[in-house]
From TrEMBL, chain A:
GO cellular component, one term: nucleus
Single GO term (MF): mRNA binding
Alphabetically ordered keywords of this record: mRNA capping, mRNA processing, mRNA splicing, Nucleus, RNA-mediated gene silencing
The gene coding this protein: ncbp1
Disordered: region residues: 591-629
Domain MIF4G stretches: 3-167
Protein name: Nuclear cap binding protein subunit 1
TrEMBL record, chain B:
A Pfam family per the record: RRM_1
GO cellular component, one term: nuclear cap binding complex
Matches recorded under SUPFAM superfamilies: RNA-binding domain, RBD
GO MF assignments: RNA cap binding
Protein species of origin: Sphaeramia orbicularis
Keyword RNA-binding: yes
PANTHER family membership: 20 KD NUCLEAR CAP BINDING PROTEIN, NUCLEAR CAP-BINDING PROTEIN SUBUNIT 2
Name of the protein this chain belongs to: Nuclear cap-binding protein subunit 2
Protein's gene: ncbp2
Known role: Component of the cap-binding complex (CBC), which binds co-transcriptionally to the 5' cap of pre-mRNAs and is involved in various processes such as pre-mRNA splicing, translation regulation, nonsense-mediated mRNA decay, RNA-mediated gene silencing (RNAi) by microRNAs (miRNAs) and mRNA export. The CBC complex is involved in mRNA export from the nucleus, leading to the recruitment of the mRNA export machinery to the 5' end of mRNA and to mRNA export in a 5' to 3' direction through the nuclear pore.
């Protein structure tokens, strides 16, 4: 139990078990049996990460003379034989190979001493497997696309290199604490147990194997100027340290003070540049693709705690890391840049926004769409949201003024007399006064009837068709009156919900309302986001309308800004949650019906009870039918949303690629990099949902006729075998 | 043994604090129950100048925010340094307790605590002068919270009159 919860202290507990086994052979036997049972359970329940720790524990029990080496080798052989299975997902055989390799730092030496021929055969089998593995997925998971200064290696490739090096060093591993060595005289007298033959459970279609990963590296021995040297990227020490630090975070992430303290008291910390390892592991998790193991904000707060505990050293390492990441922005994955922006701005807001901005003056000399100035711009925008505009003006040098965000003020078309020539001006004044005087909805609708419709010559259709000017006049005026705060605006949307719904009855209406919101609040992206959120939740607009609006020509100039993607992903999430909610209601209704039917069957034949429960069942069945329809309709809406989004991406990207081809221009513009990585991001962030619609996507959109640049993204996604 | 295991799965940042709302309509048991299920947080030690937008930006980092209610001085109807943040889910509120409580907003360390749920009237300070109780009696000078505490301000005035 402790081993599961504290895997970084594994060798302490194996030693304990070893000593107990030396005293009482039966205890050892029962313990091993219990562990095997546990292993079977975890594998059955898709708890692969936990299973790794169990196997590692078992392998370390070999070092403690509890388990006989040959039987451990036999288990490993069974694991590796999974690579011979046909028609199984690569991630399945990946996992079994990973488990074996990741135990070798602990037990490689002992196994080689006892069974070197078998181990050599095992390793050669693994090598063969690794050579024929498909690695299409790697580009999608790399934080940086550049190979310099540190290659971002596929995790199995890296581990293999580390084990190769360990073997070359004759399995001398110096980092892991091995308490059992001190007790060798007692342990070597103990009788060992043989592991029962363990056949890996077969592949089940609903199995969820761990996703492949890319190892995050940002530091090497040249980065820690004084003190202990950082183990090389292919040293097994590096693997063990990183494993253990990840384990500590996994155990203590809910309690940041404990987590920070545990990280900083890592055993053996005097022999390694611990602060660098910690910072690297934390950023590795934060930037992990598709998503971090824990919520983003946890890492921000953890780093703050670490700075508090080591004020003399950690902030410097963090600053160094930030500087390095800034330098490498040109090849950093866009999703990771987003996370870096959010982390850095939030971090700065806890330290009075103190930063040596002048060090980054180079970003002022290039096109503002390039990654470096874009990054600074987004950081300043987020920083402003956590403070206020003047604060940002004060904290950056005057040379940075082009990167300072706009003051988040409302832009009212009908502000004063100077707008009197605009066709909507007269009604804007009337409706504004009506709202201020608490006129009823009917009165306001009557006033709005006076707004001319630019879309038609005559107005004999009672003004029921789409009238963009009407929407413009009403919404601009309303939002202007409510501009004071989020609450004021939400209240306005709520109060006039009926009117807004009638104005946005058509798809064009929905699109136009979004257009108007953008026009008035284009200096305040945060406000746009919360208004769009509210309008979806109150069904003034639907998710597809938001997607179409974001991809529309009107928004093309904002396409690479972070707030656009935050709105889109938030919209997709709302859609997903909506589907899940109705599915849950359906499940609950079905459960209720089942219970009801059981009750009736068990209750005997009381006539009255029968009639009542029949009625209840009838009602439930009706409810289930309704919910079933609701689920289907929601799923259809969800599928349509993804189709719209992917279609739009394909159109935009194809246009760009064709234009570049005909003009013989390089396709790799900053816009293109951003766009193609945003497409990747859709796949990665919503992979669970998208999986359901793969068939449709492949048949309708991601066909062989597609430009290979775009198709590659789809193929990489499929290769993840998520 | 159970205690030891608890140390390993400890999640103390989401525990309910000692504070209980004296104006709560209902008994202690009911209040406890609501606190344990709540999606709403009380946020304290805000600057009087902190806006709803700033609160929204920070607290959105732990999940989608349903509603923010800025605490007001009962008499002046201006912000008086606290607010309520309501989330759609309990889990998101818990993340805020773990990762936003005790960090800075507008350069001030803010404090979050479980709240039994917003009810009309609870957005007003309960101090005699209209603001929060804590601002009635404090002796320090806090420019972001109206300067000196209300009692201390009165003393300063009377002192000024008498000292001549």
């Amino acid at each position: 139990m402790f081993a599961r919860l504290l895997p970084e202290k594994l060798t302490v507990y194996t030693t304990l078990v070893g000593l107990l086994n030396a005293r009482n052979y039966n205890f050892g036997g029962e313990f091993v049996e219990a562990m095997i049972r546990q292993l079977k359970e975890t594998l059955k329940n898709n708890l692969y990460n936990e299973a790794v720790y169990l196997v590692r524990f078992l392998s370390d029990l070999v070092n403690c003379h509890v388990i006989a080496a040959p039987s451990m080798v036999a288990m490993f052989e069974n694991f590796v034989s999974v690579t011979q299975e046909e028609d199984v997902p690569q991630v399945r055989s990946d996992w079994f190979v990973y488990v074996v390799l990741s135990c070798l730092p602990w037990v490689g030496k002992e196994l080689y001493e006892k069974k070197d021929v078998e181990m050599d055969r095992l390793l050669s089998q693994i090598e063969g497997y690794l050579k024929r593995r498909v690695k299409t997925h790697v580009p999608m998971l790399q934080v940086w696309t550049a190979e310099k200064p540190h290659p971002q290696e596929e995790y199995l490739d890296c581990l293999w290199a580390q084990i190769q090096k360990l073997k070359k060093d004759r399995w001398q591993e110096r980092h892991i604490l091995r308490p059992y060595i001190a007790f060798d005289s007692v342990l070597c007298e103990a009788l060992q147990h043989n592991l029962p033959p363990f056949t890996p459970p077969g592949h089940m279609p609903d199995a969820q194997y761990p996703m492949p990963q890319v190892v995050f590296r940002m530091f090497d021995y040249t980065d820690a100027p004084e003190g202990p040297v950082m183990p090389g990227s292919h040293s097994v020490e590096r693997f063990v340290i990183e494993e253990n630090l990840h384990c500590i975070i996994k155990t203590h992430w809910r309690e940041r003070k404990t987590c920070a303290a545990q990280l900083l008291s890592y055993p053996g910390k005097n022999k390694i540049p611990l602060n660098y390892h910690i910072v690297e592991v934390i950023f590795g998790e934060l930037f992990q693709l598709p998503s971090p193991p824990h919520i983003d904000v946890m890492y921000t707060t953890l780093l703050i705690e670490l700075c508090k505990l080591q004020p003399g050293s950690l902030p410097q390492v963090l600053a160094q890391a930030t500087e390095m990441m800034y330098m490498r922005l040109d090849t950093m994955n866009t999703t990771c840049i987003d996370r870096l922006v959010n982390w850095f701005s939030h971090h700065l807001s806890n330290f009075q926004f103190r930063w040596s901005w002048d060090d980054w003056a180079d970003c002022l000399t290039v096109d503002l769409e390039k990654p470096k100035p874009k990054f600074v711009k987004e950081v300043l925008e987020k920083s402003m949201r956590l403070s206020y505009h003047q604060r940002i003006v004060d904290i950056v040098p005057p040379t940075f003024s082009a990167l300072i965000p706009a003051e988040p003020v409302f832009i009212y078309k009908y502000l004063d007399e100077s707008a009197s020539s605009l066709p909507g001006y007269p009604v804007s004044v009337t409706v504004g006064n009506a709202i201020k005087n608490r006129a009823s909805n009917e009165e306001i609708l009557t006033i709005l009837k006076e707004v001319p419709n630019p879309n038609q010559e005559d107005d004999d259709d009672e003004g029921e068709s789409f009238n963009p000017l009407k929407i413009d006049v009403f919404l601009q005026t309303l939002l202007h009156l409510a501009a004071k705060s989020f609450s004021h605006s939400f209240s306005a949307l709520g109060k006039f919900h009926e009117i807004l719904k009638s104005l946005t009855d058509s798809d064009e209406g929905k699109l136009h309302i979004l257009k108007v919101v953008y026009e008035v609040w284009r200096n305040h992206p945060q406000m746009i986001a919360v208004l769009v959120d509210k309008m979806i939740r109150t069904q003034i607009v639907d998710c597809a309308a938001v997607a179409n609006w974001l991809f529309s020509q009107d928004m093309a100039h904002e396409f690479t800004r972070l707030f656009i993607w935050e709105i889109l992903h938030s919209t997709i999430r709302k859609m997903n949650k909506h589907v899940q909610k109705i599915q849950k209601e359906l499940e609950e209704a079905k459960d209720k019906l089942e219970k009801q039917q059981h009750k009736r069957r068990d209750s005997g034949d009381d006539e009255d009870m029968d009639k009542n429960s029949e009625d209840e069942e009838g009602q439930l069945e009706e409810q289930i039918e309704r919910l079933q329809e609701k689920v289907e309709s929601a799923q259809s809406e969800q599928k349509n949303l993804f189709l719209v989004i992917f279609q739009r991406f394909i159109m935009l990207l194809t246009e760009h690629l064709v234009r570049c081809e005909t003009g013989s221009v390089d396709i790799s513009t900053p816009w293109y990099k951003n766009c193609i990585e945003r497409l990747q991001q859709i796949f990665l962030m919503h992979h669970v949902t998208i999986q359901q619609y793969m068939g449709t996507l492949e048949n309708l959109l991601f066909t062989a006729e597609l430009d290979h640049h775009i198709l590659a993204v789809y193929q990489q996604f499929c290769a993840l075998q998520l | 043994m159970a205690g030891k295991l608890n140390a390993l799965t400890s999640d103390s940042y989401i525990d309910v604090s000692q504070y209980r709302d004296q104006h709560f309509k209902g008994n202690r048991y009911e209040q406890e129950k609501l606190l344990k299920q709540s999606h709403t947080l009380y946020v304290g030690n805000l600057s009087f100048y902190t806006t709803e937008e700033q609160v929204h930006e920070l607290f959105s980092k732990s999940g989608d925010v349903k509603r923010i209610i800025i605490g007001l001085d009962k008499i002046k109807k201006t912000a008086c340094g606290f607010c309520f943040v309501e989330y759609y889910t309990r889990a998101d509120a818990e993340h805020a307790m773990r990762f936003i409580n005790g960090t800075r907003l507008d350069d001030r360390i803010i404090r979050t605590d479980w709240d039994a749920g917003f009810k009309e009237g609870r957005q007003y300070g309960r101090g005699k002068s209209g603001g929060q109780v804590r601002d009635e009696y404090r002796q320090d000078y806090d420019p972001a919270r109206g300067g000196y505490g209300k009692l201390a301000q009165q003393h300063r005035v009377t002192e000024g009159r008498n000292s001549f």
